[in-house]
Amino acid sequence: MKNIIIFGAPGSGKGTQSDLLVEKYAFRHISTGDVLRAEIKNDTQLGRTAKSYIDKGQLIPDSLMISILAATYDSLLPCEGVIFDGFPRTIPQAEALQDMLSQRGTNVGVVLELQVSDDLLTERLLLRGKTSGRADDNAETIQARLAVYHNQTAPLAAWYDERGLLVRVNGVGSLEDINAALCAEINHLG
Ligand code: AMP
User: pLDDT for 52-89, tens place per residue?
Assistant: First the structure.
């Protein structure tokens, strides 16, 4: 069982690269953003709560996010591997993920960080906003999301680095080259 975290800022290419990895390996993919957007679309209670945070570019509270993640993860088992895209985003989420996986007799195999400059992230997200239909891909919310990323999520890179799990990958270049760099790391997992 491989548990692979694709880590990076909004617009760093986590979703795109996760889709390519799922095509190549027999892995499942958890995008917490997609899970929340599906709840919003279905107008559930959870969706209404999530929307109030997402529209402001803020994070959904950890306790809620952790329970959603555990339920989603269990729904995908058994499988050969899971790609986590957009989770964890805080240190409490990372701690909860370690606990959740160890309770299931497994652990995080690698954290692949896609590195992209803020200027390029903003450019990509504004471009994506033209077609994504995502309410949070607008200039104001993008700035809020990047600030949240730097304050609350980026410290996780050092946290995983201390645990020997972080691999930094250049997130700028062709999709194929970036994907090849990610695959090389995944293949190391054996
Ligand atoms: P994403 O599609 O990953 O960019 O996520 C879109 C939005 O969903 C984020 O800006 C957050 O408001 C929310 N979200 C997604 N994943 C998480 C998470 N792990 N923790 C808290 N909020 C999240």
Answer: 999 999 999 999 999 999 999 999 999 999 999 999 99
Pocket, ligand 1, Cβ cutoff 6 A: 10, 32-33, 36, 53-54, 57-60, 65, 86-87, 89, 93, 136, 145
Q: pLDDT, tens digit, for every residue of 94-146?
A: 999 999 999 999 999 999 999 999 999 999 999 999 999 999 999 999 999 99
pTM: 0.97
For helices 32-41 and 62-76, what crossing angle results, to 10°? 100
Atom of ligand 1 nearest to the CA of 87: 19
- Closest atom of ligand 1 to 86 CA is 3
Which pLDDT score is estimated for 74?
98
Q: Among all residues, which ones are annotated catalytic?
A: 14, 89, 128, 134, 145
Domain extents for the chain? 2-183
CATH of domain 2-183: 3.40.50.300
